[in-house]
Amino acid sequence: MEANNTIDVLIVDDSVVFAEGLALLLEHSVPLVGSTVIAIDYKTTLSILSSQSVHLIILDVNFDSEDFNGFDIARKVKQLFPEIKIIMLTQRVKIDYYKLLIDDIKVNGYLDKRFGIEEILYAITAVINGEQYIDENIKKMLEIGRWLTVTKREKEVLDLLIEGDTQKEIGVKLFISSRTVESHIKNLCQKMDAKNTAQLIATYTRYLKSNREGLNKK
Q: Exposed (0-12), middle (13-18) or buried (19+): which is 55, by Cβ within 10 Å?
């Protein structure tokens, strides 16, 4: 950390418009940030890190390249410059991404790319202070997604429940008996720890909003 308690940030994203916009926001809205520099690929990232002071990298997961992605960059940075903090951004909130980034590569932060400037400020402050930061949207996905395993049939029942269909109507549409529909709903309530159908629907709706990867299918 520099004497004036500001940090130098490297933004790695192949969307130049996004990267430049984020750099501008950070420089003008986040007092903690001193200077920002942008890289759009793997090679440029390593070149900058070899020649400039960087305390924190804000790195996108996905790149329009078959040669590298954010995982590759993050892993290499942690190998060569373990003292540099990394906050990952993603447009695809996936449980597998979380496990790889946090458990394997051991990045310091993981944010949904739809964050606001306040969210990135919280993340930067937490990470620089030695904490790990996972945004609320991803936390909600993990809370449910880790234990929620829904079959294709159960998902069909859930989708029809959300549309307002009764058990009888669901049975007709899916060519199964009302008793079978009732059994699916009972199993789903147990999986989601829901006390009744209304709570089941609310929990499922919350899951869909926080987890854009969709439900696992068997």
A: buried
CA distance 189 to 150: 11
Q: Which helix (H) or strand (E) holds 134?
A: strand 133-134
The pTM assigned to this predicted structure is 0.68
CATH number of the domain that residue 59 is part of: 3.40.50.2300
Sheet strands (E) in 138-197: none
Q: Tell me the pLDDT tens digit for each residue of 39-94.
A: 999 999 999 999 999 999 999 999 999 999 999 999 999 999 999 999 999 887 77
**Domain match, 151 and 95 both:** no
pLDDT digits (tens, 9 = 90+) for 112-125: 887 777 888 889 98
